[in-house]
Amino acid sequence: MSSAVGRPDPMAFLDDEVAGLRERHLYRALRIMSSAQGPIVSVDNRRLVSLSSNDYLGLTHHPRLRAAVLQAVDDRGVGSGAVRTIAGTMSMHEELERELAEFKGTPAVLTFQSGFTANTGVIPTVTGETDLIVSDALNHASIIDGMRLSKAPREIYPHADVIALREILERARRDGRAGGGEHRLILVVTDGVFSMDGDIAPLPGIVEAAEAFGAAVMVDDAHASGVLGRDGRGTVDHFGLHGRVAIQVGTLSKAVGSLGGYVAGSLALREILTQRARPFLFSTSQPPAVVAACREALRVMQEEPELQAQLWANTRYFKAELQRLGFDTGHSETPITPVMMGDPATAGRFSDRLIDEGVFAQPVVFPTVAIDKSRLRTIVTAAHGDKQLDFALSAFDRVGNELGLITG
Ligand code: PMP
Questions:
Q1: Paired strand residues for 49
Q2: How far is Cα 239 from Cα 204, in angstroms, rounded to an integer?
Q3: Is the CB of 140 under 6 A from ligand 1?
Q4: Cα 251 to averaged position of ligand 1 atoms, centre (Å)
Q5: What is the maximum alpha-carbon separation in the chain?
Q6: Closest CA to 275 of 80, 110, 98
């Protein structure tokens, strides 16, 4: 293709790439929402029951968060104006970190602009070429990118396979003693809840294996924050492993309802991150409205435990009903319930038909999941009412029968 002035366009290959994605049913059009987030959303001018957000506790539109944000804008304006190390550390950033540390039961917390940047910040900061990272095969993209930014070699263990993890740790120790050089740090990294399957990491087994071989554990609790543990403290609290997980990453962008991420751990961990973590050093800090929303969310999570209870009641109901209708929902144990479709074309068609029926459930296809493991990913929230869940279930039933997906 030529540009307007007749020169060949050096970026023309992008058109071919996009066309290729469309041909393979891997192109994902952005659905445009013209309402607030919530159990009912307006998408492409239609009102739909949404099963697509990570708004587990319904906090994206909670009145207390809205009020806190308006107050913060009044008091502190709309931007922090600088990176944290220059002039971008406001007292509210430090207060949020103190409150998060108390909530998580760790000596210290450092916040980041997102869960993604928390992972890409912490992993290369704490690991180097003399270390080893051992990672679950299904860990989130931000963990993978964090490992890519590290000079440390890495080993991948099959998903949730603690026996394979032990073998890797044992081999690393043997090789080290045989002259390969002992590692300064072996860091075992896992998602707490796996974001595409909704299963919970076997954290007790992972921690025991790590302790047996002198390794440290890092857990990314993006989908466990607000969902698992007391008032949503995450997987470490859920399994009673306080003090045995060196690094806990959390997000403020899902159940907490706003935007951001954090690393919870020791004081030394926080200190080194403030000196070395590149997203912290080179990207502007969260604006006052976002910090205020996160702080109020933490209070709501602790003062309104009925939200977490409702989330789990809705989860149990929706998952059991999908299974009763005959859908394959994989190995989910949490509010993330995949509905397995197989090939990407079926996943796309199912999702489109659900929209006709008034339900918003997005397909997840390659490269997010393996090409033959395409699925619709559903998440129910505390804000969904019974009527909305029943409406969605009857749409799944109709479309499942129509597309021959119901096997039960
Ligand atoms: N880790 C996991 C496991 C996630 O699922 C996500 C979000 N999809 C993130 C990290 C990134 O969090 P954030 O949206 O706050 O960047």
A1: 40, 359
A2: 7
A3: yes
A4: 6
A5: 67
A6: 110
* Ligand 1 pocket: which of 53, 251, 252, 377 to mutate (most atoms within 8 A of CB): 251
User: Catalytic residue numbers?
Assistant: 195, 223, 254
83 φ/ψ angles, rounded to the nearest 5 degrees: -70, 160
Nearest CA to ligand 1 atom 13: 115
Please name the residues in contact with 27: beta carbons below 8 A apart, sequence gap of 6 or more.
Answer: 18, 21
What is this structure's pTM? 0.95
Regarding the beta carbon of 115 and ligand 1, being less than 6 Å apart is answered: yes
CA of 252 to the centre of ligand 1 (A): 9
191 pocket-lining for ligand 1 (C-beta < 6 Å): yes
Q: Tokens for 345?
A: 């074309």
Query: In this structure, are residues 260 and 113 in contact, taking their beta carbons and an 8 Å threshold?
Result: yes
Is 377 close to ligand 1, i.e. is its CB under 6 Å away? no
CATH superfamily of 22-51+305-403: Aspartate Aminotransferase, domain 1 (3.90.1150.10)
The three-point CA angle 308-312-316 to 5° equals: 175
Residue recorded with tokens 């090789």: 175
114 lines ligand 1 (CB under 6 A): yes
Give the residue, by CA position, lying nearest to ligand 1 atom 1.
Answer: 222
User: Cβ(243)–Cβ(249) under 8 Å?
Assistant: no
The reported pLDDT for the residue numbered 25 is 80
Does domain 62-303 fall under CATH 3.40.640.10? My reply is: yes
Q: Which pLDDT tens digit goes with each residue over 322-352? A: 999 999 999 999 999 999 999 989 999 999 9
Q: Which two tokens stand for residue 277?
A: 């973590």
Give the residue extent of every domain in the chain: 22-51+305-403, 62-303
**Closest atom of ligand 1 relative to the 140 alpha carbon:** 3
Cα distance from N-terminal residue to C-terminal residue, the chain: 51
- The reply to whether ligand 1 has any atom less than 6 angstroms from the CB of 221 is no
- What pLDDT is attached to residue 406? 77
Which residues does the chain have with pLDDT short of 50? Answer: none
Amino acid occupying residue 316: R
Q: What is the pLDDT of residue 3?
A: 53
